[in-house]
Amino acid sequence: MIFLVDEISSRRLDVYLNEKFSEWSRSHVQKLIADGLVTVDGAKVKASFKLKGGEKIFVAEVDAAEVEYQPENLPLDILYEDAEIIVVNKARGMTVHPADTVRRGTLVNALLYHCKDLSGINGVKRPGIVHRLDKDTSGVMVVAKTDAAHLSLAEQIKNKTATRTYLAIVHGVLKDDAGIISGAIGRDKVDRKKMAITPDGKPAVTEFKVLERFENFSFVECKLQTGRTHQIRVHMAAIGHPLLGDTKYTARKNPFDISGQALHSHTLTLTHPTTNRLMNFTAPVPDDIKKILEVLGFNF
Fold this sequence. Notes:
Mean pLDDT: 88
Number of strands: 17
CATH architecture of the largest domain: 2-Layer Sandwich
């Protein structure tokens, strides 16, 4: 697989790959590099090689298990589709791509059935996947059908010309009507399945705006200036307002019927890779979040 490195500051190659492919162990990544199966800008390097940003990495991973990832006739909520891209409204509870522990029922399995041809830049496990949503985050995301479209969309995300907004219900009542949360995000030093604000993490910035305040909760809109793993979940928890239903980043009780964090990818704005037309997509608020807001007293 071939992919471009996003903005980075003196990050080790093995650390970067371990964070990008969380299902790979650190030792597996280091073995791939030691065996010469990883190149940076066409050259074989050591695991300790420091990335600066913008490099092209090639990983020639041989994984027999990848051939088991088959197309599946699963429901897809398609918002838009043409020869270059497909925009979907991902359901809460659907994993985006296969991993060692999840090989069926993913968005990729569904896309392989529906589209047949997807961008191959991210390899067999992640065909077409330019950006991801957590399993329990619903909403709009774009998938590339061609390599050219993939590179264009990845560049837009890197340069922040593609914008995304999210809707979330958080614990507590925010005092400020709007604000900016800035805190570098990296893997938690104690629990490797979690992310955390850490000095050696990647720069991360989230804008938020309060849409409605309730007695014990707030309804907020979040805009990503960067796209780190679990970014909104980590940042909102860091300011004392974790997401409702997010068992990974808060122990606060969830009194409502929702499985996973109350987070929805609401809008996506991008420039079409071929026509250069500015396109806006919106995924409606899902029923589970809508019902909670109605109980809280929000009027749609």
